[in-house]
Amino acid sequence: MFKFKKMLSLAAACVLGAALLTGCGGQEGASSSSGAKTLKVGSSIDFAPFEFQDETQKEYQGFDMDLIRAIGKEMGREVEIQNLGFDGLIPALQGGNIDVAISGMTINEDRKANVLFSEPYYESGLTIIVRDNNADIKTFQDLKGKKVAVQIGTTSANEVHKLEGVEVKELNTPPDCFMELKASGVDAVVNDKPVNDYYITKSGATGVKALPEKLTAEEYGIAIAKDNKALQDEINAAFKKVKDSGEYDKIYKKWFGEAGK
C-alpha cells in the first residue's frame, strides 16, 4: 500500500504485547527449537489481495504471503507470520520483535530514514471508487467539496489531505471504507488500485465503480531493521532467485491474472 503510517504510542505498545502474547493478532508458523532458522515476518492482515484471512484456510492468504514464503524457502528458513497493526510494523522491526515486514508497504523517504527496504517487488498507485450512480466525480480534482474515506495512517490519507477542499474520513481498514461508501456516509474511497480492483471484481461488490485515473505511482518493498544490512542482502538474493526461477510470475498471475513485471 502506499502506506504512510503514523508511529502512535498505542500501536507501539500493542506491538510489544503482540510480540510477547500475540495479543494484537494471530501468529502463523512454527518456530524452530533454536529460532535461528525462523524468519519472523510482520504483516497487517487486512489488505486483500496482498494479505488477508480466508476462513476456509489455515494460513494467511495473498500475494505478499505467497511471496514471502517463496523467499523464505529460497533462504532455507521457516516463515513465521505475525498479524500486527500496520502502525506497529516499523516499531516492531526497531524493537527486534520481527525480522521483516511485508504488508503492501510503499518505499518512501520517510520510511527509509527508519528502516531498510528490499528491492521493489510491486508497483501500485492510488485510485478512486464511487457509487455507480455518481456522475459528479471523474477525477481527483472533482473530490473538492466531497467527503472521502481513506484507511487511517496510510499514504492514501496523506495524499488526499493534500487535495484542496476535501473532507477526509479516516477509517481502520479498507473494508470499513467500502462499507461507509455503500452506506452513503462518504462520496468516494481512495485506496491502492489493486485493493480497489480486488474489492469490486473478487468480492462481487455491486453499486460501485472504480475510476481509471491514478494519482501516484508507488513501489512496495519488504522492510528490514535499519542495522540489518546482512538480512537485506539475503532477502534481495532470495528474491532474485524467486524471480529468475519464474516463481514470482506464477504468484503474480495467481493474484492479478497476468505475468509479473
Commentary on this structure:
It is a single chain. This protein has nine helices and 13 strands. It is of the alpha/beta class. The two termini are 17 Å apart. The longest helix has 16 residues, at 229-244. Helix 2 (63-75) packs across helix 8 (229-244) and helix 2 packs antiparallel against helix 9. The protein has a six-stranded mixed beta sheet with strand order 1-3-2-4-13-5. Strands 9-8-10-7-11 form a five-stranded mixed beta sheet, sandwiched between helices. The protein folds into two domains: 9-122 and 218-256, Periplasmic binding protein-like II (D-Maltodextrin-Binding Protein, domain 2, 3-Layer(aba) Sandwich); 126-210, Periplasmic binding protein-like II (D-Maltodextrin-Binding Protein, domain 2), CATH 3.40.190.10. It is 34% helix and 20% strand. The model is unreliable at 2-25 and 30-36 (pLDDT under 50).
